[in-house]
Amino acid sequence: MFEGIVDFIGQTGYLGVFLLMVLENVFPPIPSELIMPLAGFAAAKGEMSVLGVLLAGTAGSVFGALPWYYAGYFFGSARLKKLAGRFGRVMTLSPRDVDVASEWFERHGWQATLFGRLVPAVRTLISVPAGMVAMPMRAFLFYSTLGSLVWTGLLTCAGYLLHGQYALVADYVDPLSKVVVLVVVGVYLYRLVTHKGASAEA
């Protein structure tokens, strides 16, 4: 995965960073923790500018959050609860989980969007309850952009500062990226096996 992302960024530049960050939000197993530091490496080597990398990564992150927002908006709590009741085991989600997510988001609002963008895994899914409660698009974009800017900035700076240890970082990041994928799959399988279903929670 490491070498593939390095080659892709090298060939496509800012557009590649943007597209990878879109995919990272739509399909989480491609982690931003891998993408943005590598883009920072490229900036440190003079292949791209730090500002350009930061803007491309942030824009991709926000753009990638929109499908999840609209999924929550168009499905809404009622439809999502019906889906959870019918396909809850596959979704590892119960109708009660939908209610809890909606209630929690309504209480925390913009703070959830802003700080949720700084938490791995949560940063992707936080857009769903934002859409479910019909958070105003202007507010959603503002706080998503702000949170994403901080997150991508930290990762880009880390990659820029560690560029002198490029090979050493590769030895750690590539296995780590595989671990991230395994953890995501493992959590899903655990929830799949332990999911009680709607009837058990009624």
The parts where pLDDT drops under 50 for at least 5 residues are 198-202
Major sheet details: none
Range of helix content: over 70%
Order of helices and strands: HHHHHHHHH
Number of helices: 9
The count of domains is 1
Query: What does the overall shape look like?
Result: globular
Structural class: mainly alpha
Return the average pLDDT rounded to an integer: 79
Total beta strand runs: 0
Membrane topology: Multi-pass membrane protein
Domain VTT: 30-160
Subcellular location: Cell membrane
Protein name: DedA family protein
Question: Can you describe what's shown?
Answer:
By secondary structure, the protein is mainly alpha-helical. The chain has one domain. It contains nine helices and no strands. It has helices at about 1-25, 30-45, 50-90, 95-115, 120-125, 125-130, 135-160, 165-195, 200. Helix 1 (about 1-25) packs across helix 2, helix 2 (about 30-45) runs antiparallel to helix 3 and helix 3 (about 50-90) crosses helix 7.
Give a short summary of the structure.
It is found in: Cell membrane. With 202 residues, this protein is mainly alpha-helical. The chain has helices spanning 2-26, 32-44, 50-91, 95-116, 122-125, 127-132, 137-161, 166-194, 198-201.
